User: Fold Neuraminidase (Sialidase) from Streptomyces virginiae.
Amino acid sequence: MRPAPPLTALAATALLLLTVTGATPAAAERNPDGSGTAPLTRVSRTDPYANCTIGARSPDSVAYPGTEVEPYLSVDPRDPHRVVTVFQQDRWNDGAARGLAAAWTTDGRTFHTSTLPFSLCAPGGADYERASDPWVSTGPDGTVYASGEGVDFTRSTRSALLTATSRDGGRTWQNLTTTHVDEEPFFNDKPSLTADPVRKGTAYQVWDRLDNDPPGPGNLDGPGYISLTRDGGRTWTTARPFVDTSAVPNTQTIGHVIVVDPRTGTLYDFYDRITHSDDLSTVVEAHYAMVTSTDAGRTWSAPVTVARDTSVPEVHPNDPTKLLRAGATLPSPAVDPTTGTLYMAYEGSDFSGGRFDSVQLVRSTDGGRTWGGPQLISPRDAAGFSPSIAVDERGTVALTYYDLRFLKPGDTTTLPTAYQLATLPHGDPELRDERRISRVFDWLQAPYAGGYFLGDYQGLAADGKGVRAVLTEANSGAPDNRTDVYTGTFRTR
Assistant:
């Protein structure tokens, strides 16, 4: 889905995703076909915000109890058994969630839950009615940085970027910081956070800051903003723009994500750049781009185009009135830690003639100066969604994604969906291998929030001998537990 720009901050929050936390262990469950002992572990076991009544916007506001969506994860670079996942808890139908949660493990198998302090539903949480957009990253010294967004729906029009840190692997969280906050006509959206793998104590938070009443021509401006810490998350710099959009009216960015080349310390920020019509009703032009910093985020290069954004509306293929909500417009980048080759996965319709989105991959072998054409990763005859990418230490590229290969013609009442893992040694599509890592589930059982919603993104990270994935599955016949979050490790060689 390509989200339309909001005309007000409250409208914008309807596009958000949120998470919350709890605290119980989770054990391994089952193979993707439903039998035997796990490669997947369910990490969402409790609902710590079940009794929270804060945040209802109107009588039509619905908080889906027991739902966990939009997960992300981080693996400690010193120990692949130390993992932290984050996700939205109790998603609202009209924007964000009651809160964000984290699930942590020290043995790679047994997960415990902690609450992230990003909303009023969380103990000691920030003064915001709802939360969204969870992200997590672990630095070279083991410091875990979590990021999210706090939003108000009834008391104000505030939207804030929030961070917290953990020095015990996700058990507890400190240094709650508001890195930036705005009222209308500004709205902050889609933050991500990256811990620098070579600069101890350094991390970068990036997002798009929408201005719905900019000076001069146009009704929208959406530059990229950055705030960073150099003291392990204790303090963060004043937010500032680093990707400009003012030259072209009605232009915004979205989906900023930084990856760092561990060989050189070079930073690469990837994002989607979208220009809208004068009435903001249609997209005039969209493409993915990147900017580079060689001085730890102090200065940035001019943008380089990476690929055209050819994504189309995410819908049930047999019934386009049933809207889906997944990862269109959001890039997933990675860097090969040995060679510095850059990769970006994304949703696009180049291989379907504009009929539906597939998972596509592009690469650069010259530090992002030039990019090759897209390669098809998901099946040619079935829609693919929400790619995540990681590159292991031997140069194997791994991608995870949802696809609809199990949907039968004429079926409009269910949407059989599965999560796939594709591996490409050294990024070579001729050596591509694929396996299903989830059960087949009905996407239409997920909460509805601008579309049937599993999250605008999922997560994937290299973990030494392979990769670790985190994903959302929907449950059938469980209105009080529509979705759960799972994780598993998979060898890439």
In short: Residues 225 and 241 are 4 Å apart (CA to CA).
